[in-house]
Design brief:
Layout: E1 3-9, H1 11-14, H2 22-32, E2 36-42, H3 46-58, E3 63-67, H4 78-85, E4 88-89, H5 95-104, E5 114-118, E6 121-125
Parallel strand pairs: 1-2, 1-3, 3-6
Antiparallel strand pairs: 4-5, 5-6
Helix pairs in contact: 3-4
Length: 126
């Protein structure tokens, strides 16, 4: 079992204006695989993403998956918030995105996925 975190980044979901559909799908898949999962729901922005990442790391997460905030809108700052916390970029990791899009019935037109690693950690932005 791996301690995991799923961080949903969305202004509307964090404000209760829209249901988070991707975070629960990701968390469910990780739980079905036998992992312990903590979920976070934060508004868009590099600061909120960085804060959630630091909290997940402090709680012992070894795998962190983010969903949302990777578009090109002015508040889509998930990659920037991630870079402020983690320092190693690792290419790949896009397979989970297909699961989320298939289960949620939508796909982004433009996204900036990024995958990072740190000591005993894998993080996938998508």
């Amino acid at each position: 079992m791996v301690q995991c975190a799923v961080i949903t980044v969305s202004d509307r979901c964090a404000a209760g204006e829209r249901e988070d559909r991707s975070g629960p799908v990701l968390a469910g898949a990780l739980r079905e695989a036998g992992h312990d999962v903590t979920g976070y729901l934060v508004p868009d922005g590099a600061e909120s993403v960085g804060s959630a990442l630091r909290e997940a790391l402090a709680a012992g997460a070894l795998l962190i998956v983010t969903t949302g905030g990777t578009g090109v809108g002015p508040r889509d700052r998930t990659p920037e918030g991630t870079r402020a916390v983690l320092d190693r970029y690792a290419a790949g990791g896009g397979a989970y995105r297909e699961v989320v899009y298939d289960n949620c019935g939508h796909s982004p037109h433009i996204e900036r996925p990024a995958d990072f690693t740190a000591e005993l950690l894998a993080l996938v932005n998508g």
